[in-house]
Amino acid sequence: MKKTVALISLLGSLACALPAHAQFAKPEDAIKYRKAGFTLMAAHFGRLGAMAQGKVPFDAKAAAENADVLAVVGKLPYTAFVEGSDKGETRAKPEIWKESAKFKEAADNNQAEVAKLVAAAKTGNLDNLKAAFGSAAPTCKACHDHFRKD
Ligand code: ASC
pTM of the full predicted structure? Predict the structure, then answer.
């Protein structure tokens, strides 16, 4: 638990230290970074989703813990769609860079909904969690549908 807290605070300070456009030595580093970020985001979003959808019993403490992690990791991937990282081991579509205003809007939408989900998950109320998850999930899908290869 101490290690988890230390890791979260490390990730938190890294996230705050990152400039709007994080620097990466190589495009493949940015690709790896955002994939790792999405993996973590999906894990913690998914754990909240499982409770929201009744697949696992609601556990207020677990919900709050997942929300704390999601608050940090949910921001990470979006710092790593840097110029030149459209080629390589990635499902990112060229539209991310060609229609960057549209991509930013979709990303902002997702981040706003994730922030609301984080807040809802910390209220200790399952109905709040259900409602916020129901609003947030389509903002994941919207981005995948337009900006991610199958
Ligand atoms: C998840 C997850 C996604 C989204 C998406 C919502 O739990 O990993 O990518 O929800 O399936 O439509």
Answer: 0.85
